[in-house]
Design goal:
Structural class: alpha/beta
CATH topology of the largest domain: Rossmann fold
Shape: globular
Oligomer: single chain
CATH class of the largest domain: Alpha Beta
Largest sheet: 9 strands, mixed
Strand content: 5-15%
Number of strands: 9
CATH architecture of the largest domain: 3-Layer(aba) Sandwich
């Protein structure tokens, strides 16, 4: 497994203390090509194969970044021979990073890129999108823990409230709100009048959620209303949310806010900041732009609680090499999670790797500007942004964290853990942070 491969000699299990860390400080010269890649490569130990692929990826990225296309092409050719979407963990990871680097080169030739993609129809397959999200939900405990912690924070904030309105900024999974309806039904003071507003860009997804939740509420005899809002988050009109006076409001955002960050980069450029090298990581957070406007809009609704789940990774660096190194850490850990639980021949595993993680990797590595939407950042940066918008952190309760840890143990997910960080939860794989869950209330 990659996590085992990335352990230090002293036996610690931190993915952060890996050969990637060593390579990031090395002068990246091209490794000697194997004279006959297929045969000698198979004879190497898994750790040695992984290290070779990592070094080859970094070397290729260095050539891509410097514009040395001939050398990049040679490295891509060898990576294509040695990586495989059906192989071991590092071969699978390398396959998607190889594809992403090739896409980045093609994008530097817009005419060639457009010509190659001219006849490809962009399909908007709702059922496939929902299916892959469901597979991610089933194969990883991450969303389960996120939903549990979010619901617990909402229940605690809404104690004694008789009219509760929950806004779901990505209403794609009814399981979260089925659990909340059942939890509200078990309150000693009885359930509140519950209204859930779901935001999603596909009407079919909202219709299905409305049917499932309404059926459950009727079965439990809970006063319930579902308000569907067909919109992307970027195009959302706050008035569509239908917030009413007298309601206690909660907001849930799961893996959504990072999509707003592209415009913040544009603002920094317009203000004359240089977005190159290590200086980019210490640049001030802009107080305008889509992310700030959106958070300010959420604050204007005066929610009693807002719970945010985001990938806890630093994939928004200004240079290709920064993003490649950081995303290699993250996706090696995520692919390792699947390697530990799901057979390599499982088609559903391949779908999640290709359509979920593979598309994220491609966006992080191949795209720039407003086209690069997967701008994951660390909890510390999100805390700064949300604080600037007028929110104060609400520490997740001991009971909520206990329930989250029990959920992980109950599902038998060895290797996962939850760390507490400044009152927030960070879900990790072998000490490697993967996703964070944080709760917030309006500061008056």
């Amino acid at each position: 497994m990659v996590v085992a491969m990335l352990q230090e000699d002293n036996g610690t299990s931190s993915v952060a203390s890996s050969p990637l860390q060593v390579f990031s400080t090395m002068s990246l010269t091209r490794p000697a090509l194997l004279s006959s890649p297929s045969s000698p490569f198979k004879d190497l130990k898994p750790e040695e194969r992984g290290l070779y692929l990592i070094h080859l990826l970094l070397t290729c990225a260095n050539h891509v970044a410097s514009g040395s296309l001939q050398n990049a092409n040679a490295a891509l050719e060898q990576l294509s021979l040695l990586s495989s979407p059906d192989g071991d963990t590092m071969q699978r990871v390398a396959a998607y990073f190889t594809e992403a680097l090739a896409n980045r080169i093609l994008k530097s030739w817009p005419g060639l890129y457009k010509a190659l993609n001219a006849t490809q129809r962009k399909t908007n397959n709702v059922s496939e999108e929902v299916h892959v999200r469901r597979l991610f939900f089933d194969m990883f405990p991450i969303l389960k823990v996120s939903y549990l912690l979010t619901n617990r924070a909402i229940l605690e904030a809404m104690e004694g409230e008789k009219m509760v309105h929950v806004i779901d900024l990505d209403a794609s999974e009814p399981a979260q709100w089925l659990a909340l309806i059942q939890d509200f039904n078990s309150r000693p003071e009885g359930p509140p009048h519950l209204r859930i507003t779901g935001v999603h860009h596909h009407k079919e997804v909202l219709d299905q959620m409305a049917h499932i939740l309404t059926e459950e509420a009727e079965k439990l005899d809970i006063p319930f209303q579902f308000n569907p809002v067909v919109s992307s988050l970027e195009s959302l009109n706050i008035d569509q949310l239908g917030v009413k006076t007298g309601e206690a409001l909660a907001v849930s955002s799961v893996l959504q806010l990072h999509n707003f960050l592209a415009s913040d980069e544009d603002i920094l450029r317009k203000n004359g900041y240089s977005l190159s090298g290590d200086s980019a990581s210490s640049l001030p957070l802009p107080n305008s732009g889509r992310i700030s406007r959106f958070l300010n809009a959420m604050w204007s609704l005066s929610p009693k609680i807002m719970v945010v789940t985001e990938q806890d990774s630093d994939h928004n660096g200004s240079t290709l090499m920064e993003r490649l190194l950081e995303s290699l850490y993250t996706y090696a850990a995520l692919f390792d999670c699947l390697e530990a639980k799901v057979p390599r021949t499982c088609q559903d595993r391949s779908k999640v790797e290709k359509m979920f993680f593979g598309e994220e990797i491609k966006n992080i590595i191949a795209c720039e500007g407003s086209e690069r939407r997967e701008r994951h950042e660390k909890l510390e940066k999100w805390s700064q942004r949300i604080d600037l918008a007028g929110f104060g952190n609400v520490p997740l309760s001991y009971f909520a964290m206990l329930q989250g840890r029990r959920l992980l143990q109950g599902y038998g997910f060895d290797g996962y853990m939850i760390k507490e960080e400044s009152g927030c939860a960070v879900i990790c794989w072998q000490d490697r942070p993967l996703y964070s869950v944080s709760a917030w209330r309006c500061r008056k």
